[in-house]
Every structure is written in C-alpha cells, then in structure tokens.
C-alpha cells in the first residue's frame, strides 16, 4: 500500500514537471531573433479561431478599446491608431493574439489586451464585431495625391500577391486589408515591419519593400489610403452580375 | 493644486470617524441596521444623498451598484485602502453592502459648478467648488476644464493615453465595469489617478487604469479632473 502511494506521488510530481516543461518550451521569438517563425499558429490563436465570435458581445467588449480606436472603430486620422472596421476576423485574431504572446511588439496596446484584460472569447467577439462594421468616417490620406506612383510600386513589387488587387487582403491567409487605411499608419507600419520593430514582420514583405525610399513608402500608403473599402468594391462588382 | 479649505475636509472626516464610533455598537448586533442609521455613518463624509461636498471624498450618488459593491468588498478585503475607509469598513457587515450600493446607485449624481467665490449662491453643489478650486478664478478653471475635455474625449496621442470617454462614456455615465465619472470631485479624481499611477491603488480588475494613469502627467490629471467635475450626463 505504501509502495503504491509513493508511486502515485512520484507520478503526480512527474506530471507536474512535464506541464512545467511544456509551458517553458513555448517561448515566442520576434522577427530577427533566431527561431522566429512567421505566422506561427500559436495555441491561443488556434483556440480563438475555433470560436464563433458574437458581434453583440463584441460591441460591449470593444468599449475597452474605443478610448484609442474610437467608438466607430475608425481609429484616428493622424494614423496613431488604425482603422479596424471591416478587417478580416482572422487578421484581428492573429494580431491581438500575437501582441499578447509578445510576437508583435506593441507596448502601447499590450496592457489593454493582455491576459486577463480580455479573454480569448472576447478576442473572438471583438473580431466578429469589428468585421461587421462599415466605415463612415473618412480616413487620413497623404498630403498630395501620389496614387499613380503608389499604384505602380504596389504592382511592380507584387504587393497584390498577399494584399489583393484592391488592397482587400486575404481572410483565409490572415493577410490584412490595407485599403482605406490611414496614410500615416500605413507608412509607420511599413517602416516598423522593415526595421523589425513591429516584431511579427513577414520576411517576404521585408524583402519586397527593402529598397523603398521614404517617398516610395508614402506613395504606396497614399495609393492604399485612397482605395475604397474592399467591400464597397466587391458590392459594385457583384451588382451587375446580379441583374 | 493646493486646497485652501482642506481643514474643512479634516473636520468632516473627524466627524465621520466619531459618528462611526457611535454606531459601532449597532454593527455588532445581529439585527440588520436600518438604512437611516447607515446613512449617518456614510453620509458624514459622502453626504446622505451621496453627493459628497468634501472635495477629497468621492460622490457615490449614481455610481453603478455593482461597481460600488465591489469597492466595499475590496475595502473589506484590504484590496483597496484608504485611512478613513479602513476604519469605517469593519463596522459594516458584508451582508449590508448590496443594499447600500443599491441605495447610492439610485441617488441622482449632481454635476459640479465651477466657482471661485464661496459666497456664490445657488447651483447644485457650488459649496464644494471653491474648496477644490483654491485661489483659481472661474475663468482659469474653465480654461483648465477645456484642456481636460480634449483629453477626456480624444486622449493624448503623443503618449498613447486613451480617451477617458472610451470606457467611461462620453458623458461619463459609466456602467457596471467602468464607474460613473460625471460630476465627481476633482481632488478625489486626482488622488485616484495618482494612486493608480504609483501603484498605491491596485483594485482595477485588469490593471487597465494603472496602465492609463502611467501615461498622464500631473497637469493632464488636474485638467481632466476639472472637466469631469463639470461633466453632466446626457439627457
């Protein structure tokens, strides 16, 4: 009996040790660090993606976000905070979970999304809510129209491969919609992605924009900021077919 | 900001403590304490209608019941601390919290009126305004409140301080999670922001207020507190 008890105790201890090891094993790396895996499906991201978000609950949970992203989720025109309306849920889930995991470096946002500031369910709800929103407020654009130059750069550097011909991104692959985004936000993120400051840079994008000058980045950002919300484009394209 | 009439607050605090000692015997008894008696205990500092006229003490009127109950529980459990409340809370049984929170949540929150002269008549609780204002003129206070309005509604972009109105509502009416702010006393608001910033107050459930307060300067806190004092609930 004593022997059995000691076996049980030993077994319990080793189980605990195994759990501790497993927790230690998961240490996300940021871009530029050895072992960085771009677009890693972290356990939390997988779990949240499996959930069905409730936009009604998401609206309530978003209350904690609107001090920065505003009640209409359109961010600020100065680009300090991005527009989130209509963004793909997969993208929102990827970005929020990566900020929580320390893969995307965003110290300003971290205290408001880290566990337990919001739960996994709330991430799913918020993402569903934001995806359902239309944009009513005008976004920030470049000081002058550089969209011709921007469009050429966007095409020549094959940005459309991931972000789509209309800047609509790709929900299935978690590529963000970049159309109708604030100009200054787009410029800032291009810089931060290239420098690795953002933490979760896509190495392919770093390569693609490595040769961009400041004015190139501004041109692309201006072009994208002047593109309409991709959903408006899709609706227009679908309309004649429906007739 | 220095408060000229701080000693008034001190007197009333002393009163509050004395009153609470009077009723200490009542708390020991098993019978539920009548609300009227409790209002003498709480009302000494917070006013019987919950619209505290002492700038250092919070207005409880119109606070969301769940929020208020949680604060009482936190004081009881020493998760939130204040020299006065720490002496009062042992006299109140936990079973009373719900009713007290309900009572104060149902009282009408009065907005503050910026005034420089204690003799200024009328207006909701003009009495408290001069005490909090110190030597500031009405014009100076109005200008300060305007600066505060900008922070309250837009935040501070440079330091990524979120707009207060995002969570607490543009009119400061709050909800179960985020307390009502409109009309709250400036000195109390400044003290809480300072305590969140220093880590002296840690019962914001998710550390969000501590994160926000760290992004505000003393001047920004004073401005936003002035605006909150004048803020009225949307009709």
> Looking at CATH, which topology of chain A would you report?
Cytochrome Bc1 Complex, Chain D, domain 2
Give the distance, in angstroms, between the N- and C-terminal Cα atoms of chain B: 32 Å
Helix content of chain A: 40-55%
- Classify the secondary structure makeup of chain B into a structural class: mainly alpha
Strand percent estimate of chain B: under 5%
CATH level-four homologous superfamily name of the largest domain in chain B: Cytochrome c-like domain
Indicate how many domains the architecture of chain A comprises.
1
**What is the number of helices of chain B?**
12
Number of helices of chain A: 13
Oligomer kind: heterodimer
CATH architectural group of the largest domain in chain B: Orthogonal Bundle
- The general outline of chain B is globular
Low-pLDDT sequence parts of chain B = 117-133
Task: Please report the first level of CATH classification, the CATH class of chain A.
Answer: Mainly Alpha
Low-confidence stretches of chain A are: 16-23
What pattern of helices and strands is seen along the backbone of chain B? HHHHHHHHHHHH
- Find the biggest chain interface: A-B, 17 and 19 residues
| CATH topology group of the largest domain in chain B | Cytochrome Bc1 Complex, Chain D, domain 2
Quick one: overall form of chain A? Answer: globular
């Amino acid at each position: 009996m004593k022997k059995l008890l000691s076996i049980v105790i030993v077994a319990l201890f080793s189980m605990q040790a195994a759990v501790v090891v497993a927790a230690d094993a998961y240490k996300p790396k940021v871009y530029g660090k050895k072992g960085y895996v771009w677009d890693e499906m972290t356990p939390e991201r997988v779990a949240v993606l499996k959930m069905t978000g409730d936009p009604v609950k998401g609206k309530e949970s978003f209350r904690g976000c609107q001090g920065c992203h505003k009640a209409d989720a359109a961010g600020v025109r100065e680009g300090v905070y991005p527009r989130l309306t209509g963004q793909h849920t997969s993208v929102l889930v990827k970005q929020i979970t990566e900020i929580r995991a320390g893969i995307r470096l965003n110290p300003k946002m971290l205290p408001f999304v880290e566990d337990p500031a919001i739960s996994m369910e709330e991430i799913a709800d918020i993402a569903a809510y934001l995806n359902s929103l239309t944009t009513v407020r005008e976004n920030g654009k470049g000081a002058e129209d550089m969209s011709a130059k921007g469009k050429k750069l966007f095409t020549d550097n094959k940005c459309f491969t991931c972000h789509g011909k209309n800047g609509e991104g790709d929900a299935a692959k978690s590529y963000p919609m970049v159309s109708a985004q604030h100009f200054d936000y787009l410029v800032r993120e291009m810089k931060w992605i290239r420098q690795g400051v953002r933490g979760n840079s896509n190495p392919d994008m770093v390569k693609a924009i490595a040769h961009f000058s400041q004015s190139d980045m501004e041109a692309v950002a201006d072009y994208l900021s002047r593109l309409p919300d991709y959903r408006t484009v899709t609706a227009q394209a679908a309309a004649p077919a429906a007739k | 900001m220095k408060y000229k009439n701080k000693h008034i607050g001190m007197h009333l605090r002393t009163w509050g403590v004395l009153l609470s000692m009077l009723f200490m015997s009542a708390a020991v008894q098993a019978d539920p304490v009548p609300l009227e008696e409790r209002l003498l205990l709480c009302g000494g500092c917070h006013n019987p209608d919950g619209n505290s006229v002492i700038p250092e003490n919070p207005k409880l009127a119109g606070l969301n019941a769940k929020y208020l109950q949680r604060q009482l529980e936190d004081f009881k459990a020493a998760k939130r601390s204040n020299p006065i409340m720490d002496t009062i809370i042992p006299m109140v049984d936990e079973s009373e919290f719900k009713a007290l929170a309900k009572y104060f949540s149902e009282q009408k929150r009065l907005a503050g009126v910026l005034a420089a002269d204690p003799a200024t008549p009328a207006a909701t609780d003009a009495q408290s305004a001069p005490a909090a204002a110190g030597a500031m003129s009405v014009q100076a206070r109005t200008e300060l409140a305007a600066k505060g309005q900008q922070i309250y509604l837009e935040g501070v972009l440079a330091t990524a301080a979120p707009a207060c109105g995002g969570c607490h509502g543009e009119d400061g009416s709050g909800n179960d999670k985020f307390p009502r702010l409109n009309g709250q006393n400036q000195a109390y608001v400044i003290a809480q922001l300072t305590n969140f910033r220093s880590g002296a107050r840690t019962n914001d459930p998710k550390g969000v207020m501590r994160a926000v307060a760290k992004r505000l300067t003393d001047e920004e806190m004073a401005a936003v507190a002035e605006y909150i004092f004048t803020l009225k609930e949307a009709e």
